[in-house]
Amino acid sequence: MNATTTLPATIDPDEAAHFGAMAKEWWDPNGSSAMLHRLNPVRLRYVRDAIDRHWDSDPRALRPLSGRSAADIGCGAGLLAEPLARMGAAVTGIDAAAENIAAAAVHAAGQGLAITYQSGGIEGLAPDARFDLVCAMEVIEHVSDPAAFVQGLARALADGGMLVMSTPNRTALSRLALITVGERIGRMIPKGTHDWNRFLMPDELTALLAHAGLRVTNVTGLSLSPAKGFVLSDDVRMNYLLTAVR
Questions:
Q1: By the number of CB atoms within 10 A of the CB, which of 31, 141, 156, 173 ranks highest?
Q2: CATH class of the 13-166+200-218 domain in this structure
Q3: What is the pLDDT of residues 146-155, one digit of tens each?
């Protein structure tokens, strides 16, 4: 992809407003983002394992991203951006909701973390911005143009870098777990968070990544265990994480 190519807009204003309204409770583990707090440790485990595999780093190292840059696209109020910074990365967090960016900046300052935050979509990144690690967790199902979004992720990825994504699968199980139970019955997720028709199956996302010049190297399921809560598994029916390289 040509670095000077102008990307189409990918922000869905309704989605940005929905998540922006949650900004004040983003860091409350019992608030409207409670489900993200439960998901985050598992996502972090996957990201850390991917980092160690890709750069052959010591799993015991506290700062495996020292000297590297990372972008968290759709960062919310910084649940992933802050751990990436603690792992040593120079982090840029981007979110479509200005309210989330404001909350993220305040929280990071309180933690003594120097994270660059900016409001907007992937298309708002400078055309020559490149990052060793690009993350987009539970984001692609909320954008207006998934293909353009993936093109933007690919453009932002430095040579030798790695992309990590997570997203719900479009299956009967994900509809039941995330929408019927999660939003309507259990009310563990704010109503209207998900549109099942916008979920991407692994082969659909893999095809978008291939079209953008990236190759998927790993796909891992994220499932719900009655005993342990969210766990990484071989079952991709509800949700999955993947890594990709150029």
A1: 156
A2: alpha beta
A3: 999 999 999 9
